[in-house]
Design goal:
This protein is α/β, with parallel strands linked by helices. It folds into four domains: about 160 residues, no CATH class; about 90 residues, Threonyl-tRNA Synthetase, Chain A, domain 2, CATH 3.30.980.40; about 270 residues, Rossmann fold; about 60 residues, Winged helix-like DNA-binding domain superfamily/Winged helix DNA-binding domain (Arc Repressor Mutant, subunit A). It has 24 helices and 18 strands. A hairpin with a 7-residue loop joins strand 15 and strand 16. Helix 10 crosses helix 12 and helix 14 packs parallel to helix 20.
């Protein structure tokens, strides 16, 4: 028996189907023991007469249930007993009722039929359907009985689900009725509206023909600084370039509620851990003959700053700072922390600072910073930016107009894109579209595209390099036009102009923030053009209210050039891969020791010493909530927007050159794949281009790592 059980357990599937097939054969053939002799006592009067054809289903169910309980552990699973016992009984009742509904009893009530006595009782009793002349009343009462049976069975075994489904059914019926009635009413209203719109459209066409106006006429004019530019002329013939509301009315913008942002509690290092690390620092340095005392501790969400006061030891001379800094590796070993960083001296203190990572880092939320009662100056900023929480656990905020431009760099996964999103979210939470307009350039196509459709945007997020060049050119022209406005108004900058506008009940000039998420991609396609435009905007844009926030994950010298670096004095560096990259972005080492995930060094324009802070984390859900708020705002028409598609013809030569350059780079990369060496003359012949362009392509391939450095007169090796 044990061996049989083990065999059935190992081959349970095959045994189950064998039992199932055997059950079907026994049911169909009705072997002799069930139809004659003593078997007929059970078979005929009870099984057949009572259950009808549904006896087959009951017979299969009993055999299958027996097998499952004896030779498998299926009954031990959750819900298995219910579905193996209760549900088949429900099916048997339903089958008996349905078979009796469609068959007639020649011998009267409570006699054998396809549904058996059980089905006859459920469907036909006490009406006793006539065999030959069933009436409509018979069918109606039978259907009603079957529906009532189903409801009773479902309510008995599934009370909660039945109630919920009933509510959904009632709600669906009522909604359908309302929808049909409202749809008919809407069709009538739409018909009348379309008729009126057709009449108005004909009137407008006739009026345009008579007046012969051209509000959006584009003219080409010569300029000393650009080859071509666009001037939009209005009906009065005045130049109207600035992107301001068309009306001076109060648009009643509603800023998002702070409750859409998540609250995150910022933590600090455990006091016991702080005490242990203080003792360990003093002990480690003392073992090397350096006497210090930890006089100050500032705990932040990511690192804790320990202020070391140099002692005198056994001599009258004070311990030199260089001796303390030289023991960096010894302290790192003792503290079991690789990423420690010295700061000598601490800001505003005559102490040597050492930053040690906390045992457990904390997350910094946007809500806790921009709505913190301690940050009273945040709402007073013209373009407020919340960057994070410093190592002293104080909020790190600034005004973009004072920076006046910001350069952000960091390796992949360091928190650079999250920082850009938090800056944008800060603008959207505190400023309406009348105050700030945005241009977003996102070559990666995934980071800034969720902001499409908000009224702050001058155009939808730009993902093509050619359109990015056009947008930057238009911003240069906008800057020049604003300078003319400031000159005519006798104002030094946009702040003075807006103050006068407020006094004179005049439309204010909005600030424009250009955000570039990945500078390296733009520099790869058209480095000279991008560099020229960015430098031009960075040099002169501050006075006209145009500011730049540029980010890159590759802070190399070919991306962050000397001209770009000189015009972006305020910078943020997240974790980078090498000390060279750290020196490129912040002019000092230290960024290569950052911990990643928002850990950053901020170098403002007024302080060359980097400030360490934990950057803000903003989730995708919070961004979606902010965007949803502004998308649902119904005021869009009064705001002007850029139409880059209409500007392509104006800069067609520049666009063709950029697209041509992109195509040539791809062709050169494909040629290099099938060669061991590559030369400039080979590119000239195969691509049919001149030597200057071929040499430039070769330099691009070297920067991309496709070919190695070249020697004079020799072909370059393909890597």
């Amino acid at each position: 028996m044990k061996k049989i059980r083990e065999f059935c357990t190992k081959n349970r599937i095959y045994v189950f189907f064998a039992v199932l097939i055997l059950s079907i054969l026994l049911s169909v053939l009705q072997i002799e023991i069930f139809s004659t002799g003593y078997g007929n006592i059970i078979y005929q009067p009870f099984l057949i007469n009572f259950f009808g054809i549904s006896f087959i289903a009951m017979f299969l169910w009993i055999l299958s249930l027996t097998f499952a309980s004896l030779y498998t552990n299926i009954l031990n699973k959750k819900g298995a007993k219910f579905y193996l016992t209760t549900v088949p009984l429900i099916i048997i009742l339903e089958a008996s009722a349905i078979f009796s509904f469609f068959t007639f009893n020649p011998d009267g009530i409570f006699q054998s039929s396809y549904g058996g006595l059980l089905g006859e009782f459920i469907i036909k009793w006490p009406t006793n359907w006539d065999r030959y002349t069933p009436t409509l009343l018979n069918y109606s009462t039978g259907v009603l009985r079957l529906i009532i049976l189903n409801i009773l069975v479902l309510t008995l075994f599934f009370p909660r689900n039945t109630l919920n489904q009933s509510k959904k059914l009632i709600s669906f019926i009522s909604t359908s009725i309302k929808s049909i009635s409202s749809k008919s009413k809407k069709q009538e209203d739409d018909g009348a509206k379309m008729h009126q719109e057709a009449i108005d459209e004909m009137d407008n066409i006739n009026q345009d023909i008579v007046e012969n106006t051209d509000e959006y006429n584009l003219k080409f004019v010569e300029n000393n600084n650009l080859d071509s530019q666009i001037i939009s002329s209005n009906q009065d013939g005045d130049i109207s370039h600035t992107f301001t509301p068309n009306t001076n009315e109060n648009l009643n913008w509603q800023l998002p509620n702070k409750e859409i942002l998540a609250s995150i509690e910022s933590g600090e290092e455990n006091q016991n851990d702080i005490g242990a690390k203080k003792d360990l620092i003093e002990k480690t340095l003392s073992e090397h003959g350096i006497e210090v005392s930890v006089d100050q501790v500032k705990s932040g969400p990511t690192v804790t700053m320990y202020g070391l006061a140099p002692g005198y030891g056994n001599s009258s001379k004070r311990v030199r700072v260089d001796h303390i800094l030289a023991r960096e590796k010894d302290l790192a070993l003792a503290l079991a922390s690789q990423n420690i960083r010295f700061q000598s001296p601490m800001p505003g203190e005559s102490l040597v600072g050492i930053e040690i990572p906390n045992s457990k880092t904390s997350t910094v939320g946007l809500k806790d910073l921009i709505f913190d009662k301690k940050n009273k100056d945040f709402d007073k900023y013209t373009l407020p930016i919340a960057l994070g929480t410093g190592s002293d656990n104080r909020s790190l905020n600034c005004d973009l107009t004072k920076l006046p431009h910001l350069l952000v760099a960091g390796a992949t996964g360091s928190g650079k894109s999250v920082c850009i999103n938090s800056i944008i979210a800060g603008f959207l939470m505190k400023k309406n579209p009348d105050e700030v307009r945005l241009i977003m350039i996102d070559p990666k196509r995934v980071e800034l595209t969720p902001y499409a459709g908000i009224p702050h945007l001058l155009t939808d997020p730009i993902v093509e390099s050619s359109q990015a060049i056009i947008a930057l050119k238009l911003m240069v022209e906008e800057m020049q036009f604003r300078f003319k406005q400031l000159e005519e108004d006798n104002s030094k900058n946009i702040a003075t102009y807006n103050d006068k506008s407020e006094k004179n009940n005049r439309i204010k000039m909005p600030y424009i923030v250009i955000i570039v998420d990945e500078l390296a991609d733009l520099m790869l396609t058209a480095s000279n053009e991008v560099e020229k435009l960015l430098v031009r905007l960075a040099q002169l844009g501050r006075a006209t209210g145009i500011h730049l926030v540029v980010a890159t994950q590759r802070p190399s010298v070919d991306v962050v050039t000397g001209l770009i670096k000189a015009n972006f004095p305020s910078r943020i560096s997240f974790s980078v891969t090498s000390q060279i990259d750290s020196r490129t972005i912040i002019d000092s080492p230290g960024a290569e020791k950052l911990l990643g995930k928002g850990d950053m060094l901020f170098v403002p324009i007024d302080n060359p010493s980097p400030k360490r802070a934990q950057g803000i984390f903003i989730s995708d859900e919070e961004v979606e909530s902010i965007v949803r708020h502004w998308k649902n705002h119904k005021i869009y028409n009064p705001l002007k927007k850029l139409d880059l598609d209409r500007m392509v013809d104006v800069f067609s030569e520049e666009v063709q050159e950029i697209n041509s350059e992109d195509s040539l780079i791809l062709q050169a990369q494909n040629l290099a794949k099938g060669q061991r060496t590559l030369s400039t003359s080979f590119l000239q012949r195969r691509l049919r281009i001149g030597y200057p362009r071929a040499a430039r392509l070769m330099d691009e391939l070297e920067e991309q790592g496709v070919v190695g450095p070249g020697d004079a007169g020799k072909a370059r090796e393909v890597l």
